[in-house]
């Protein structure tokens, strides 16, 4: 009995020791019945023939071919700068696990070429497992698009004790803060004129009206909202008056008619009169909102400078790799990120200025090595093409 208990304890300790070895990432496993996502890749491997041992050379060449198949997958989904920066991590945590990512393979061609053994294989690579591990390592990074000069319109309606204000205190406070940071602010009276010409009766809430006013004033972004200032107290303040203000706002990107951010902030104001205290509360609430906008506005707007490239009829990762390399070679393109490849359709995000979209579309038909492509549609921020 004691011997059996001792053996059990030793077994548990042995398993625990194995589980606490060098950390590694385990690929995703599929539940029973789920379809595993794979893609076809063709890759080559070379190995030097040592001591005329062809069997050993073939084994090493096959391992190299499998590694190259997985590396092509990594190259498609990880942008070039990240791949170089994190080369050691990719080698240790991804490429060292080649066998775990290849579902099956077949040898297309093999043989001796001088002092080398060369193998070409067609492999089914488990791209979902590769992508999950890349994501866990923090390597699936969205490309950073280039910045642009943005025109911003601001429509904030003030209310004091339930009565609409006409001084534009909150809008002016927001404008001043953004102007100091070199944003281009559309004059409040210009927005008001467009609102009047459009007869917009619900500009704060109607996305269609916001888009039309934005187009009329050539705005890239419109910030709309309400600022409410209400009496708080005049007790125990030594003759002073306290007001409380709350500002709620939304940020709309005009071209895509998309809500990209919203928030609300509150602050108090104290002064000698109700009017002065209400104004102070509005200014302080707007100042807090402006600080928040400064923190997130540029980051949120940058995502709308990305170009979406959709490519149809992608037969293999080799073809997708050629398309991605073609995009990366374009002088107009700053970075790329392959988001998905499903049922022959690849979705790629390209970091580039929107004004260069026509040039990128044109080059897709002429600059992708070994592949004939046709551009089907070009919109404000997207390209749809197909492999012929």
Q: What features would you describe in this structure?
A:
By secondary structure, this protein is of the alpha+beta class. It has three domains: about 35-135, Dodecin subunit-like (2-Layer Sandwich); about 150-305, ABC-type transport auxiliary lipoprotein component (Rossmann fold); about 315-385, no CATH class. Helix content is about 40%, strand content about 30%. The protein contains twelve helices and 14 strands. The strands form three sheets. Strands 4, 5, 6, 7, 8 and 9 form a six-stranded mixed β-sheet that branches. Strands 11-12-10-14-13 form a five-stranded mixed β-sheet, covered by helices on one side. A hairpin with a 2-residue loop joins strand 4 and strand 5 (about 165). Helix 2 crosses helix 6 (about 125-135), helix 2 packs across helix 11 (about 315-330) and helix 7 (about 170-180) crosses helix 10. The chain is elongated.
* Radius of gyration from the alpha-carbon trace, in angstroms: 30 Å
Fraction of residues in H or I helices? 25-40%
Within the CATH hierarchy, at the fold level, what is the topology of the largest domain?
Rossmann fold
Please tally the helical runs, counting DSSP H or I stretches of 4 or more residues: 12
List the helices and strands and how they pair.
Layout: H1 2-19, E1 39-48, H2 54-77, H3 80-85, H4 87-93, H5 98-101, E2 102-113, E3 116-125, H6 127-136, E4 151-160, E5 163-164, H7 169-180, E6 184-185, H8 188-198, H9 207-216, E7 221-233, E8 241-253, E9 258-271, H10 274-302, E10 306-312, H11 317-328, E11 335-342, E12 345-351, H12 357-364, E13 373-378, E14 382-387
Parallel strand pairs: 4-6, 4-7, 10-14
Antiparallel strand pairs: 1-3, 2-3, 4-5, 7-8, 8-9, 10-12, 11-12, 13-14
Helix pairs in contact: 2-6, 2-11, 7-10, 8-9
């Amino acid at each position: 009995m004691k011997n059996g208990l001792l053996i059990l304890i030793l077994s548990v300790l042995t398993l625990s020791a194995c589980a606490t070895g060098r950390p590694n990432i385990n690929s995703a496993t599929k539940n029973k019945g789920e379809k595993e996502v794979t893609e076809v890749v063709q890759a080559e491997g070379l190995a030097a023939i040592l001591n005329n041992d062809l069997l050993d050379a073939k084994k090493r060449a096959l391992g190299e071919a499998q590694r190259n198949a997985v590396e092509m997958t990594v190259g498609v989904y990880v942008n070039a700068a990240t791949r170089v920066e994190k080369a050691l991590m990719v080698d240790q945590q991804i490429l060292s696990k080649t066998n775990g990512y290849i579902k099956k393979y077949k040898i297309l061609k093999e043989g001796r070429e001088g002092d080398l053994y060369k193998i070409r294989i067609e492999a089914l690579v488990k791209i979902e497992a590769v992508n999950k591990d890349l994501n866990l390592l923090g390597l699936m990074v969205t490309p950073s698009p280039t910045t642009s000069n943005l025109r911003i319109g601001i429509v904030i309606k003030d209310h004091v004790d339930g009565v609409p204000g006409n001084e534009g205190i909150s809008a002016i406070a927001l404008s001043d803060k953004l102007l100091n940071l070199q944003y281009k602010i559309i004059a409040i009276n210009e927005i008001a004129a467009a609102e009047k010409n459009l007869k917009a009766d619900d500009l704060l809430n109607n996305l269609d009206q916001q888009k039309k006013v934005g187009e009329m004033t050539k705005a890239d972004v419109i910030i709309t909202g309400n600022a409410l200032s209400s009496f708080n107290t005049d007790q125990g303040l030594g003759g002073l008056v306290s007001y409380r203000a709350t500002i709620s706002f939304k940020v709309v990107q005009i071209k895509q008619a998309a809500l990209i951010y919203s928030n609300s902030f509150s602050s108090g104001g104290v002064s000698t009169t109700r009017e002065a205290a209400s104004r102070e509360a509005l200014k302080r609430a707007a100042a807090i909102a402006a600080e928040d906008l400064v923190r997130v506005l540029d980051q949120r707007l940058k995502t709308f400078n990305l170009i979406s490239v959709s490519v149809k009829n992608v037969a293999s990762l080799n073809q997708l790799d050629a398309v991605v390399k073609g995009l990366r070679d374009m002088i107009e393109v700053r970075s790329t990120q392959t988001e998905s490849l499903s049922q022959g359709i690849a979705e790629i995000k390209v970091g580039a200025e929107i004004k260069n979209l026509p040039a990128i579309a044109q080059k897709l038909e002429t600059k992708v090595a070994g592949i004939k492509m046709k551009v089907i549609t070009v919109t404000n921020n997207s390209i749809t093409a197909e492999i012929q």
